[in-house]
Specification:
The complex is a heterodimer of chains A (about 210) and B (about 130).
Chain A (H helix, E strand, L loop, with lengths): L10 E5 L3 H13 L3 E5 L2 H7 L6 E6 L7 H10 L6 E5 L4 H9 L4 E4 L4 H33 L3 H11 L4 H8 L3 H14 L5 H13 L1
Parallel strand pairs in A: 1-2, 1-3, 3-4, 4-5
Chain B lengths: L6 E5 L3 H11 L5 E5 L2 H6 L6 E7 L7 H10 L6 E5 L4 H10 L3 E4 L4 H16 L1
Parallel strand pairs in B: 1-2, 1-3, 3-4, 4-5
The chains are: A alpha/beta (about 210), B alpha/beta (about 130).
């Protein structure tokens, strides 16, 4: 197990303008041991939003002021990765389709069974954890990439293309011995256990 | 991009709807193939030239959503637009979660469907 990066606890963030709904959702979360925080408006949530806090967002679609869909748009523009589960009293199909096309994890209509919502929340929390792990991994690779000198970077790109040292030496007009030294430094700085591992890391970073 | 024109597969059990969709989609620079059901498409899937699938949700046999799931399982992430005449939010949600790129209720506006097919084809080529 990797040590935890932060001491933040996974939290279900509940945004609904209806106080009794907030309370009952919050109680439902606590009844199954989930941490919950409630917000009466999208703005209130945004003001305290912290991208480093893991969890998921349970979001009412229709609220005065900023709607749930507008909050989603706002979060997307901030490249937020927190999974969103929309709750709606009168959702129509086009609205559900558009919410999910814009990245929502789920969309559930009232009235729903508690267990149904909890199942979706658990799925969203798993997704969040997975996304965060991927992000951490990519950031780690990027940091290692940034520690390479320009020359090492150049050599690395040629290695990743699968070129043998001899060819790289010719390409860069240096001795094969120099390439070997750069190559060893690249593998060490990148913490790569093999060429395949290095290639995988570079591909991973390029995806991110 | 392959040597072939991008191919759009239409899957619907109703012959009249198949030909109407075919006429509509043929206005785009694509090759159109028609199928009765999901099984027919799955057993005779085009290769890389396959740019988009348009399928009815309520197909006899495997449903449109199962078709999407089967394609994902086969590693074929072909942009799939599902059409439905009798739909609800849970069905729409599971269609998109299964991997469909779009879910359109009938009757739809022709232009709307064409735009979405165009987008899917561009996406497949890009």
């Amino acid at each position: 197990m990797r040590p935890r990066e932060t001491e933040h606890r996974t939290t279900v963030f509940i945004v609904d303008d209806d106080a009794p709904v907030r309370d009952s959702l919050s109680m439902l979360m606590k009844s199954v041991g989930l941490e919950a925080e409630t917000f009466a408006s999208a703005m209130e949530f945004l003001e305290s939003y912290d991208a480093d806090r893991p969890g998921c967002l349970v979001l009412d679609i229709r609220m005065p002021g900023m709607s749930g869909l507008e909050l989603q748009e706002q979060l997307n523009s901030m490249h937020a990765i927190i999974p969103i589960i929309f709750i709606t009293g009168h959702g129509d199909v086009p609205m559900a389709v558009s919410a999910i096309q814009h990245g929502a994890a789920d969309f559930i209509q009232k009235p729903f069974r508690d267990q149904d919502l909890l199942d979706r929340i658990n799925k969203a929390l798993e997704q969040d954890q997975h996304n965060r792990e991927t992000l951490l991994e990519i950031r780690g690779i990027e940091q290692r990439l940034a520690s390479l000198t320009p020359r090492e970077h150049e050599v690395m790109e040629l290695i990743v293309e699968g070129r043998p040292n001899k060819v790289i030496a010719g390409d860069l007009d240096v001795s094969q011995r120099t390439v070997e030294i750069h190559r060893a430094r690249v593998m060490e700085k990148m913490k790569a256990s093999s060429l395949a591992h290095l290639v995988r890391m570079v591909m991973r970073a390029n995806q991110g | 991009m392959g040597l072939h024109k991008p191919t759009v597969c239409i899957v619907d059990s109703d012959a009249a709807i198949r030909s109407a969709l075919s006429a509509l989609v043929s206005t785009l620079p694509v090759h159109v193939l028609l199928f009765n059901d999901a099984e027919a498409l799955l057993s005779d899937m085009p290769g890389e030239e396959l740019a988009c699938v348009i399928a009815e949700v309520d197909l006899p046999g495997r449903s449109g959503i199962q078709l999407v799931e089967d394609m994902v399982r086969k590693g074929r992430k072909v942009p799939t637009i599902l059409l439905t005449s009798d739909s609800d939010v849970p069905t729409a949600v599971s269609a998109l979660q299964a991997g469909a790129v779009d879910f359109i209720e009938k009757p739809f506006v022709d232009r709307q469907l064409l735009e979405r097919v165009e987008r899917a084809v561009t996406y497949a080529n890009g």
